[in-house]
Write a structure and sequence with these properties.
The chain is about 45% helix and about 10% strand. It is α+β, with helices and mostly antiparallel strands and about 525 residues long. It is globular.
Length: about 525
């Protein structure tokens, strides 16, 4: 995307920041807490301070807290929060991907700055994930006539990225058809393979599908125009769940396209293979070790990861090496992480959870412990048609490397009691993965971690409190889920499932009762 001149946005930001008092404390955790303050001025100050932090350290700013602040009644809070989201999206589209739906709702906000920030967020995410912006296509089209020049430009560029994505053929070689109900919208999509008008259906004016689905719907054999919840209503065929083949490439034979995140151990980049051969131009996630002091432990971890990556739901190691620093290339996740799929519905959550547990059980059977389970280490890969994306667990044994380096492998929200108080609960081991899986299942079923809030309070809760039952968050969940999650999240190791395989059996009993068709999917 050709960015709108940043200097124009920066001047606008400086002018608006003059209207609020920036707090003295610039600790991100303090600012996040202030977003919930009773005083609107304090909330606004925190939001704009986070916007400044996002401009220089976007990886440190939690997008989930910013997203919640965009619903604030105070316009200055919304302005600051949406500005911060836009800053994150401009530098790290993947991190902001989960906010696209919320940003889409905000493109019609009454406040022009909130609307502009929302469009910048959607457009920036569309640079790397154009299909994530697909639901916003009508809103973006309408904004091409907006009075705000920045809004018009970003909306047009986002539309172009979406259209370019829609114009690509599916993996089966058949073209994509974009059906629209308004001929004026069809004019904007002239880059797609096929554009037909009058086929958007009653509930939506835009429908995207492979040509075969459009043809079958028109012939009366299958009408999916108003599919609603069926748009992503089933797991993929097991035969379609595959991993890329390894690549024969050295570190300098990868073209780094953009940064996709930094953690205490590695720097990650979306990268493309430049080496000649059948795997040329394959897109990977290239992870490079930050501190050479951990080179030996990192190399051992990647070798052990490679031992377990023959499972459908373990991220594949495609290449690895030792120089100039230890590195590993793995398959690229084009559908985000677990954090992006906490609202996909009960059936999908049950399937995701079962597949993730199965992956860890497979690794444990081979003697490999993860040690750092959290949403960010579960990536998702897009699938064809109306099927759910595929979860795959990554970062195997990185938790052990971090622990040996004296760094906590997970945030308090997903930490096990032995992570925060080993002197009381023992050292991390296989039972820690049982707890970690319980925390991931809780997030899938309840839509949030077991404990939330100030990190210091969360640590205390991890040691001594029990979270509300998942069914309190979603009454549609089968009641047996509460027992499975509670046992996995037991404070003391002997009270948890003895093995991950036992946890898998417990979850499968829930599936047998609620959705037996998912067991063999």
């Amino acid at each position: 995307m050709t960015r709108f001149e940043a200097s124009d946005r920066d001047r606008l930001a400086r002018r608006h920041r003059e209207e609020v008092e920036i707090p003295e404390s610039r600790e991100v955790s303090d600012l996040v807490m202030s977003l919930s303050a009773d005083d609107s001025g304090r909330r606004a100050s925190a939001a704009w301070a986070l916007a400044e932090e996002a401009a220089s350290r976007p990886e440190q700013v939690p997008v989930s807290d910013l997203a919640r602040a965009t619903d604030d009644d105070d316009v200055w809070v919304r302005r600051g929060a949406t500005w911060a989201l836009a800053e994150v999206a401009r530098s790290d589209p993947e991190a902001a991907r989960s906010t696209v739906e919320r940003a889409t709702r905000l493109v019609g906000d009454d406040d022009p700055l909130v609307r502009e920030n929302a469009v910048v967020t959607v457009a920036s995410v569309a640079t790397e994930y154009p299909r994530a912006a697909e639901p916003a296509i009508e809103e973006l089209a309408a904004l091409r006539d907006d009075d705000d020049g920045i809004v018009r430009r970003y909306a047009s560029e986002a539309l172009r990225h979406v259209v370019d994505a829609l114009s690509e053929s599916t993996l089966t070689g058949e073209p994509t058809v974009v059906s629209v109900s308004d001929e004026r919208l069809a004019d904007l999509l002239d880059g797609a393979n096929v554009v037909q008008t009058g086929g958007g259906g009653q509930s939506t004016s835009v429908r995207v599908a492979p040509a075969s689905e459009v043809e079958s719907a028109e012939s009366g054999t299958a009408d999916r125009r108003d599919a609603g919840d069926e748009v992503r209503g089933r797991p993929p065929d097991p035969a379609d769940v595959v991993s890329p083949d390894p690549v024969d490439a050295e570190y300098d034979e990868f073209e780094r396209l953009r940064r996709v995140g930094t953690d205490p151990l590695t720097v990650g980049h979306k990268a493309r293979v430049l080496a000649p051969g059948p795997r040329a131009h394959v897109v990977v996630t290239l992870r490079t070790l930050q501190e050479s002091d951990h080179a030996g432990a990192f190399a051992r971890a990647t070798r052990r990861w490679e031992r377990v990556d023959d499972h459908d739901h373990v991220a594949g190691v495609l290449a690895r090496g030792d120089g100039p620093r230890p590195w590993v290339a793995t398959e690229f996740f084009d559908a985000g992480t677990l954090a992006d799929h906490l609202g996909d519905g009960v059936a999908a959550s049950l399937w995701y959870g079962h597949r993730i547990v199965a992956a860890v059980a497979h690794a444990h059977a081979l003697g490999v412990v993860h040690g750092g389970l959290r949403p960010g280490v579960v990536g998702f890969v897009e699938t064809l048609g109306r099927t759910w994306p595929v979860p795959k667990v990554t970062d195997w044994e990185f938790g052990r490397v971090l622990a040996e380096a004296g760094t906590k492998p997970v945030s308090p929200a997903f930490a096990a009691p032995e992570h925060v108080a080993p002197e009381t609960f023992g050292r991390p081991d296989q039972a820690t993965d049982v707890y970690g899986l319980g925390a991931l299942l809780y997030a899938l079923f309840a839509g949030r971690p077991p404990f939330t809030g100030d990190p210091h309070v969360v640590v205390q809760q991890v040691e001594s409190a029990d979270p509300p039952a998942p069914t309190e968050s979603d009454a549609d969940l089968p009641g047996a889920v509460d027992d499975v999650v509670a046992r996995a999240l037991a404070k003391r190791k002997p009270e948890r499932y003895e093995t991950v395989a036992d946890l898998r059996v417990g979850l499968e009993r829930v599936l047998e009762d609620r959705a037996p068709e998912l067991l063999n999917a």
